[in-house]
Amino acid sequence: MERPSTAGNPKQSHDEELYIQQAVVFIEDAIQYRSINHRVDAGSLRLYRWYYSRICQWGLGLNIALVLLLAFVERPSSLSVSSDPRYRSDPWQPPCGLTEGIELLCLLIFALDFAVKSYLIGWEELRKSKWLIGYTVVISVSFIDWVLSVSMVCDEKLRVRRLLRPFFLLQNSSLMKKTLKCIKRTLPEIASVILLLALHLCLFTMIGMLLFAKTEDPKKNGEWELHFRSLTNSFTSLLVLLTTANNPDVMIPAYSVNRAYSIFFIAFSVIGTYCLMNLLTAIIYNQFKGFLLQHFSFSFQPESVSDSMKSSFSLTCGARLPQAARQFADVGSMDREQFRTIFDELDKDRIKEHPPLPQYSSPVLQRLQVIFAHYYLSVLGNAVALANVMCICTVLVLNSEKSTEERDNYSLEIMNLCFILYYLFEMCVKIFALGWKGYLSYRNNIFDGILTVLLLILQITILITYRLPFPHWDDPSSRSAVSLWEMIRLVNLLIVFRFLRIIPDIKVCLSGPILHQHSATRHVAEDPANVISNSSMENITSNFSVECGTYEQLNYWPNNFDDFAAAIILLYDVMIVNNWQAFMDAYSRYTTEWSKIYFVSWWLVSSVMWVNLFVALILENFIYKWDRSCSCSVTDVEKIRYETSVQLMFR
């Protein structure tokens, strides 16, 4: 069929060309997964196609790469053969204005890019786009900081625009945006597990400080002196053990004294490293898998299911099926969504029914029963347990440098007695409100009750043995074979275990993405290499005696924050977590203990989150292709390769 002639009507011909051009642009938007909310007049469409042309996008990508690579040349420059301060020659430093001029050109291109995007999508769409609003803020702040830098003749101490440069890559990459969106979906579950990890670390830190307290025998103080001397030292040692970087070094001093101490370290590693850390990987993979499957279902499945796709379902399961399924018994069939809903209901855990509450005739007893059966009583119990643990922690910190004979065990014993009396009161009133059967129908009550009875038995034993309170309780003649400290330590260990009652109540809800950026510049922390470089390196290496396994003894001098390239390598070494405690220890000694927060934060973001996200991507891509390829032809496999490319997966 021939196309009708429009030679006599130029306006109609012009309109047809515009419609064809609009259709082409919309098809390109669909293929590239771009929004269609933009101007569609002839001039705007030409500008739009030019902006998204390969040459223009490659130029924008080159501009982003250039502004990111400036960090290697800017002061302090990374243009030296070695990063080791012992052998490093003075690097070439660019003159003031060279890198600033290149950066100004890049910022102008970003400003032009923002202007074109704003014009194409219009004011209304611009107001809705958080990324473009952030783009405006970042460009404006970068310009202001650039002006301040030039006015100070490049002698400023802090360059804020350096911290903002990664945003240019994020804003112009749909892949990065999808990654952040995936992380946002995963954050609540990750936060819950990280909270459990923190609780695990804190509890084992307190248990370690109780087990490895300073004694009168110097031969038995090796573990205390090296790893459990203070609260921060204990926490750091166990945090590093969580990554297995200091295993078995951290265990050897205690293991040499008594082989039973190995149970403490093995239990910590099994729970933390092999359970909770792998649980993090499973959560990230599960969330990431759901993220991909959702996008696959939107891409490859129709939105609605026709009547011909309805499946017959025989409802012969009787009482096993929920009430929601029985409404389809007369119909005899259900569509796909109804079928999926039924099995979601079947997959839910069965709700455990508890025995009825005891009945009291007295109005006073009924009122007390309502009060003691309320959920707030459990909340108060958790608060008291937390206060008890905090008191024990405070006493341990205050007495960390004292031997067991020098500690004020009497005050600690009286404090524990008060808390144990409350635990006994809580158990009794719960039995009163719920009854014996109702009380034992809750697992957390069984856990609390057993530990409360054990604590009460220990407390009575202490009172009988030492006749507390007694003015001469510390008289050597009144001591038994087991010292008061040993018995109190056992009580404290049980109290710490009792604090685990709060785990079922841990619920964390977070909203909004978190973008954690680290600045690997000299102002973050003063380098050990910089501190020591004020002296002669030859004198240090020849006359300086250092402890085995430290930053100095391992000759980790090239790993520093002297320049951007060296900082990247140092953070990579920390991400690998092999001997990362040497870096953390060195920077905490030469700067402040707060520098440990920087390294722990980087470990959480890089090793815990990003590496697991990368593993989840590989696993999901591999499993999806494997499952599909096992049941498909060669042609279908080639189609799958196209569908599951990295870019399309994120789209």
From TrEMBL:
Membrane topology annotation: Multi-pass membrane protein
Catalyzed reactions per annotation: Na(+)(in) = Na(+)(out); Ca(2+)(in) = Ca(2+)(out)
Transmembrane segments: 55-73, 101-120, 132-153, 190-212, 263-285, 375-398, 410-434, 446-468, 480-500, 600-619
GO BP annotation list: calcium-mediated signaling; endocytosis involved in viral entry into host cell
Location within or outside the cell: Late endosome membrane; Lysosome membrane
Tagged with keyword Transmembrane: yes
UniProt GO MF annotations: calcium channel activity; intracellularly phosphatidylinositol-3,5-bisphosphate-gated monatomic cation channel activity; ligand-gated sodium channel activity; voltage-gated channel activity
Protein name, UniProt field: Two pore channel protein 2
Top-level taxon: Eukaryota
Xref: InterPro entries: Ion_trans_dom (IPR005821), TPC2 (IPR028798), Volt_channel_dom_sf (IPR027359)
Keywords for this protein: Calcium, Calcium channel, Calcium transport, Endosome, Glycoprotein, Ion channel, Ion transport, Lysosome, Membrane, Repeat, Transmembrane, Transmembrane helix, Transport, Voltage-gated channel
GO cellular component: late endosome membrane; lysosomal membrane; monoatomic ion channel complex
Segments forming domain Ion transport: 93-289, 389-508, 555-622
SUPFAM superfamilies hit by this protein: Voltage-gated potassium channels
Entry similarity comment: Belongs to the calcium channel alpha-1 subunit (TC 1.A.1.11) family. Two pore calcium channel subfamily.
